[in-house]
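Amino Acid Chain and Its Fold in Token Form
===========================================
Purpose: to set a sequence beside its fold so the mapping can be learned.
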Amino acid sequence: SEPMMTAQTVNWQTQGSPSDHLTLGHSVSTFDPLSQELKQVTKESVSNVTFVEYEILLPGVSGTSIEKNITLDSATRIELSCRLDNKYSHLKSLQVIWKRGNETIGHINKTENSWSIRLRILDNNNMGSYSCTLKGEEETSAVFHLQVPKIEGKEKPMVSYEGDTAVMICKSFGYTPIAWTWYMTNGSEQIAINDSLLSDKYAINRVSANVTHLKILKLTKEDGGVYWCEAAFELGKSKGKLTLKVLSFMVPLKPFLAIVAEAIILVTIVFLCEIYSKQKEKRAEDEKEFDQVEQLKSEESNGLENSSTRHRKI
């Protein structure tokens, strides 16, 4: 009997999200390989391979280019299609070109307004970008990017302190890696971390099939830097980037010390202002007292002059 196949159809359009349809049953289409190498694949080797279809609906607007990312983690039979919107079906003499990167490849005509390529994605060599271009009165294109699942790291740096323990986490949503590997950056090199050889410093835990933790013990300033988690899938590898900053215990005290210093400076300024103000008041009082003494002397002098004048008149 025919081997059981999993058929999944994903329709991509210029607007809205893709709609998925999952069907279990016999092979849903005759699959023509594109090269002699693919022809050598036996029925047994692909009996459990998923078959998927992706279609982009092209508008007839000149210069328009639509891009879609397609995530694959295991061997897959795939059909990529470009279909011209029905309202532009009047466009005639269209030249259809399919390319993998810059290399032109053959295609099939599914319908009058739909063109496809069929692929067996068996390893990382089959991944990459595939594009279709429609040339005529108007020119429009679409690009399918076949890629392995992306790994979620952490965009913002992780901050910890000397002597503490840091735990970094990487996740793969919706896909299960075959294996996880952690790397630390040393200059321009990435060095794999072997926690079995450095158990007093590192501990790597696979919390679940999709999550891995790297624990770094007894942090020092030298532990700061960039770390990478790498997930291995059947069709390739994907990395997530994490950054660790290790601070000394003096760092959190710096703001407090700065505040204390500012307070001391402020108190000193106030104290000096008080001293200056008191000295200024004392000088003002001394000047006032001096003026009063001078005034009294002046009045006494005037009194003596008036008395001598009266004596002369007599």
